[in-house]
Amino acid sequence: DAGVIQSPRHEVTEMGQEVTLRCKPISGHNSLFWYRQTMMRGLELLIYFNNNVPIDDSGMPEDRFSAKMPNASFSTLKIQPSEPRDSAVYFCASSFGGIGADTQYFGPGTRLTVL
Amino acid sequence: GNSVTQMEGPVTLSEEAFLTINCTYTATGYPSLFWYVQYPGEGLQLLLKATKADDKGSNKGFEATYRKETTSFHLEKGSVQVSDSAVYFCGAQRRDSNYQLIWGAGTKLIIKP
What number of CA atoms fall less than 13 Å from residue A88's CA on the CB side? Predict the structure, then answer.
């Protein structure tokens, strides 16, 4: 299995630009998570999808952030417009959902730098 | 509220030393407990887990025992190696939720040769 795939691995952009991060979960997994990791705030859950439906987006910082999952094999996280404080590593993770101890499998992350 | 507390890092040890990273949790019910590890430049990966009281999770020489009476899940290893240098995250997942994994802040471990 290829694992969770994220692209791009690194993104450098200027303030005000639109940024789109992409994720391909592990085939057969029906839960998908977007996380943000910074030194100051640690690991934060941004949004959780189950069966392609957003279940909990309470972690999305503000309206500049949006996430979609048009099908079971693809998700995007978009920031528009981007700001320097959005600089972080963004992780996508997937799991096979169901009540209980489900292991989350993380992608390698996208390191975003907003200048 | 639900929370996970880990010992602050960085933790610096010499090779072959004994390791303990403390983790305590507060959560409704009896959550499942996890340790994840993040190597430099990579995403998190599951190290071990335990789903009920007195369960012991183990992997790669690391162990952690689910202690209900002390609400703890301390990570231990008898003899660390330089390759164990990484950030370690403790997590708790409520049984009534299939996604809400509550994360600790992470503990950076540095092993010197």
Answer: 21
Please provide residue A95's backbone torsions phi and psi, each rounded to the nearest 5 degrees: -155, 165
Q: Per the CB < 8 Å rule, is A109 touching B43?
A: yes
Cross-chain residue pair B99–A50, CB shorter than 8 Å: yes
Helix (H, G, I), strand (E, B) or coil at A31: strand
Verify whether the Cβ–Cβ distance B98 to A104 is below 8 Å.
Answer: no
Question: Over the stretch B35-79, which tens digit does the pLDDT of each residue have?
Answer: 999 999 889 999 999 988 999 999 999 999 999 999 999 999 999
Q: What is the pLDDT of residue B98?
A: 57
Measure B14 CA to nearest chain A CA, in Å.
25
- Bridge partners for B57 per DSSP: B64
**CB spacing of B105 vs A101 below 8 angstroms:** no
Rg (CA), chain A: 13
Provide the shortest C-alpha distance from residue A62 to chain B (in Å). 20
Question: Residue for token digits 């507060």?
Answer: B26
What is the spatial distance between Cα A93 and Cα A114, in angstroms, rounded to a whole number? 23
In this prediction, the residues of chain A whose per-residue pLDDT falls under 50 are 99
Residues of chain A whose C-beta is under 8 A from some C-beta in B? 4, 31, 33, 42-43, 45, 48, 50, 55-56, 91, 93, 95, 97-109
- Give residue B107's identity as a one-letter amino acid code: T
Could you tell me which residues are beta bridge partners of residue B67?
Answer: B72
Integer Cα distance of A49 and A103 in angstroms: 15
Question: A45 contacts in B (CB within 8 Å)?
Answer: 101
